[in-house]
Design goal:
It is a single chain. This protein is α/β, with parallel strands linked by helices and 414 residues long. The chain is 52% helix and 17% strand. The N and C termini lie far apart (67 Å). This is N-glycosyltransferase. It is a multi-pass membrane protein.
Length: 414
């Protein structure tokens, strides 16, 4: 028992120290967000913007998401939706909005099927290969995101700094149904959103980012995307390698509706960490260490407290350490939620429901976080929007299966 006690106390000491440091970090994030909230929206010259939106199928709240893109309060932007096929269901919906908002310049790019990269990346490569000369800023959004009306203006404004390589927002998941799986994936995602603010932890999120065209061309996009499954992590690396800043803008935090069952939730979480492992392995190892440490403090403390209480061991040690960690974690979560609430345009009841679960079910969320990280440790295959990919390396992607392939096989068999 002495060896186990020493090992636990050593890990618990590290866990409590890390928890304290992250609480301080969250406080610093609060200061950053407060500064951004107090910033005034002074008039500025609106440089011409091309807003790219890759699409595949009709997402949850798709029409609301499209309306938010067509109604941006920005004087000089045009939309470019990219689909793999004219038969994609999203195309017909987009065409309806083109008729509804004729004053907003909009085109639909048909990219065709990807061969050696992710379909989304292929869409972006095709759409950004020939950018009109008059465009000064490129912006990117996902079709499952619903930005506010000033989203584009606030993001473009911050690209003006010469040291800024890219400006990014992030997503805040909004469960369609109050299920355990939806709440767990929302809690996992929203915890990551709380890390953004300080430059050290900023990663580009592909559903909400912008970059000056001259930076985009200097960093050799879209050629740098060739063979890639992931778009945004590669952008993060390229920007940092060039000595430029990845700037997070809280006003560009966007709502994204989710509705997962447990298998889909675990597949989604594994896919996120899988891409991190392939493109930024250091961050993956950091995520594994953090998830393991959190579970030592929650699950490990609970198991040891019960076991030692039954066997007459020092059960108060894990009980007190676990309780302190939980209290500190709850304080951090509450502070993060209050910090980010002013930037979110979602119903108050929905926000309270998600954040309440995140605060009180933190030990449960931690278990699924660890499962997601560990499950991404092995293998080279993932399924994304029905397409199965084999990823041999950052620039080596092979498409093994498409839903269309199954349909053709059945037709040939008939």
């Amino acid at each position: 028992m002495d060896g186990l006690l020493i090992a636990y106390c050593s890990l618990a000491s590290v866990g409590l120290l890390v928890c304290l440091l992250t609480l301080i970090q969250t406080w610093e994030h609060r200061r950053y967000h407060s500064k951004r909230l107090a910033a005034t929206d002074e008039p500025f010259a609106h440089p011409p913007v091309m807003l790219f939106v890759p699409c595949k199928g009709v997402d949850l709240d798709f029409e609301s998401n499209l309306q938010s893109l067509f109604t941006q309060e920005y004087a000089n932007y045009q939309l470019c939706f990219i689909a793999e096929s004219i038969h994609d269901p999203a195309v017909a919906v987009i065409e309806q909005f083109q008729k509804q908002f004729p004053a907003v310049p909009c085109r639909i790019e048909i990219a065709g099927l990807a061969n050696d990269c992710g379909q989304k990346v292929h869409n972006l490569i095709v759409a950004t290969t020939n950018i009109p000369d008059n465009i000064e800023v490129l912006a990117f959004a996902d079709s499952d995101a619903c930005p506010g009306p000033l989203w584009l203006a606030r993001m473009v404004r911050r690209t003006a700094n010469s040291r800024t390589g890219v400006v990014t927002g992030y997503r805040w998941f909004v469960p369609v149904r109050p299920t355990w799986s939806n709440h767990i994936v929302a809690a996992m995602n929203n915890q990551l959103a709380g890390n953004l603010g300080l430059r050290l932890f900023n990663l580009v999120w592909g559903g909400s980012w912008a970059m000056r065209k001259e930076v985009f061309e200097r960093l050799n996009f879209p050629h740098a995307w060739q063979g890639c499954l992931n778009d945004d992590l590669l952008v993060t690396q390229a920007v940092r390698k060039a000595g430029l800043k990845v700037v997070y803008e809280p006003h560009c935090l966007v709502a994204s509706a989710v509705d997962f069952d447990f298998p889909a939730m675990l597949e989604f979480a594994r896919r996120q960490y899988f891409q991190v492992r392939i493109y930024t392995p250091r961050w993956w190892w950091l995520g594994l260490a953090a998830a393991g440490l959190v579970n030592v403090m929650y699950l490990g403390s609970a198991i040891l407290a019960v076991t030692w209480a039954i066997t007459g061991g020092p059960f108060l040690v894990p009980l007190v350490c676990g309780a302190i960690y939980y209290a500190c974690s709850s304080m951090r979560t509450a502070l993060r939620q209050r910090t980010m609430r002013p930037f979110l345009q979602i119903p108050p009841a929905t926000f309270r429901e998600v954040t309440r679960f995140e605060r009180f079910a933190a030990p449960l969320t931690a278990i699924f976080q660890l499962v997601a990280v560990v499950s991404s440790a092995g293998g080279r295959r993932i399924v994304w929007r029905g397409i199965r990919y084999y990823v041999a390396g950052p620039h080596e992607t092979c498409i093994e299966f498409r839903p269309e392939q199954q349909i053709n096989d059945r037709a040939n068999a008939a």
